[in-house]
Amino acid sequence: MNLTSDNIAPAHEAVLEALAAANRGPARPYGHDDVNARVEAMLSEIFETEVAAFLVTTGTAANALSLAQMVPPWGAAIGHAEAHVMHDECGAPEFFTNGAKMVGAPGLDGRLTPASLSALLARDFWTPPTHVAPAALTLSQATEAGTVYRPGEIAALTEIARDKGLRVHMDGARFANAVVSTRAAPADLTWKAGVEALSFGFTKNGAMAAEAIVLFAPDLIKNLAERRKRGGHTWSKGRFVAAQIEALLADGLWLDLAKTANARAAELALGLQARELRLAFPVEANEVFVWLPAALHEALKAKGAAYYVWSSDSTAPERRGGKDEVIARLIASFATTSKEIASFLSAIDAVRAPGKKASRSPGTPLF
């Protein structure tokens, strides 16, 4: 009953096989090998345009290096107030940009809105030289609330950004889950909607340690190789990073794995609603946020259930919890089974009042 994160999942067997294959014989170092070249070609095909790809092993590096290409030390990157890049990178974006600010804007369900973005940009504290200048917009896909942006929503935000001269970055740690959820083409969720750089996540979706900085704007390529090297994120044996991504991109495996994770999350959400437990956010990818009465939360922990207790100011008024409730964040991965979901739901049944039966409740709509 471990639903703490998709990071707890093992590496997929195809990834391990690819690593073993990459280990046979020598290859040119520092990303100049044939596997890296094939991965860049595969990414260009998936995104329906020629891209440049810089591979790293952590999402933190992908986000921080991407933003450093866009934001000067006297600039600011704007994102949702609760975005991962704002709070969970231990200051890496500020470090790699040499001191730029991260500025958050509000938005229900973890999503920025054109109104909130426009309101922030219209404020009078951007005047030089005494204030930082907004330089980039960063969007999380999927968001920290487990919701997703549709192509039209992304385009509306990037249009505002472009009008103000901002570059656009997307933190795609769970990009695969968003593609599956929206049923939109990767191109429609990125460059066609105005995104210029994507941190394409693979580690949460079957890789051992592999992420790709995918650049759609050619001018962002300049000196990124040097910035990556200077930041300590250039692997000498880069084929081992590329091999993981190649295995996941081959035959659409990355989408199959994300589809499984999303399906398990949907099963979990439906089971929670059937037990009259309220969801804090719509379930649109592989994350489920549910309000648990304190007593139920403590009982589940005592039974060995593992998950994180969450806090958020972006829940809609109709989905806010009671005084003695906590938000549990439950995440399904490609390796999560229906049996594991059933075990968690059975644990809830075991600690509820005798005779309490599961019954379908309207609750928060899924997707």
From TrEMBL:
It comes from the Bacteria. InterPro entries: ArAA_b-elim_lyase/Thr_aldolase, Low_specificity_L-TA_bact, PyrdxlP-dep_Trfase, PyrdxlP-dep_Trfase_major, PyrdxlP-dep_Trfase_small. Its EC number is 4.1.2.48. It holds the Pfam family Beta_elim_lyase. Residues 3-292 form the Aromatic amino acid beta-eliminating lyase/threonine aldolase domain. It catalyses: L-threonine = acetaldehyde + glycine; L-allo-threonine = acetaldehyde + glycine. GO terms for biological process: L-threonine catabolic process. GO terms for molecular function: threonine aldolase activity. Its cofactor is pyridoxal 5'-phosphate. Keywords: Lyase, Pyridoxal phosphate. Homotetramer. Catalyzes the cleavage of L-allo-threonine and L-threonine to glycine and acetaldehyde. Belongs to the threonine aldolase family. This is L-threonine aldolase. The lineage of its organism: Bacteria, Pseudomonadati, Pseudomonadota, Alphaproteobacteria, Hyphomicrobiales.
